[in-house]
Design brief:
This protein is of the alpha+beta class. It is built from one helix and twelve strands; from the N terminus they run ββαββββββββββ. The chain folds into two domains: 37 residues; 141 residues, Lipocalin (Beta Barrel). The longest helix has 30 residues.
Length: 183
């Protein structure tokens, strides 16, 4: 049956179905963009949950956990971390505890870090690709600069990369430690 000017109803239906699929995809993309704009911490929400260290059996590896939780009406994400290091290579056993508060400020995502050794640092937070978050410490005169990256792997594990840059070359980061965590 002809619909108009040589176009069949079947052909018109196929065109309309394709347009409906394209429209649905566009709506989903726009909705995700609106979500990201209305939730500046959206790129870091994959971190939320309790993670435990995955040990490889190397001497001196810590045991412990890291947790990320939304707080203050989803306006911040709070990371708490507890790592117990056994005595190794002439070093006494010790426990490292820290807290990182991730928040949105006009024009940026920031992280405020505190630990039980008295270290305090401010970070700029970026997400260069989905399921990856990078914390880069501010440049502070005569202080080592740090960069901590979290990447969610396909197997569901979280890989953390800790890099440091010397005070006299604050952009020259080198990997200091890499570890894995699992939920």
């Amino acid at each position: 049956m002809r619909f108009f000017a040589g176009v069949t109803i079947r052909y018109a239906n196929r065109i309309m179905k394709k347009q409906a699929v394209l429209l649905a995809a566009l709506v989903c993309l726009l909705a995700s963009d609106v979500r990201a704009q209305s939730d500046p911490l959206a790129a870091a929400r994959f971190l939320i949950g309790k993670w435990t260290y995955v040990n490889t059996g190397k001497p001196g590896e810590p045991t412990g956990w890291t947790s990320f939780a939304s707080s203050l009406g989803d306006r911040v994400i709070v990371r708490l971390s507890n790592a117990k290091y056994p005595a190794a290579a002439g070093r006494a056993a010790y426990t490292h505890e820290d807290m990182l508060v991730i928040s949105s400020v006009p024009g940026a995502i920031r992280g405020d870090y505190y630990d039980n050794a008295g270290y305090v640092s401010r970070y700029t937070v970026t997400s260069p690709v989905p399921n990856t978050v990078v914390f880069t410490s501010d440049k502070v005169k005569d202080q080592v600069r740090a960069r901590l990256s979290y990447k969610l792997e396909a197997n569901g594990r979280l890989t953390a990369y800790y890099e440091a840059a010397p005070a006299n070359a604050p952009e020259k980061f080198a990997i200091y430690a890499v570890w894995s965590l699992q939920r």
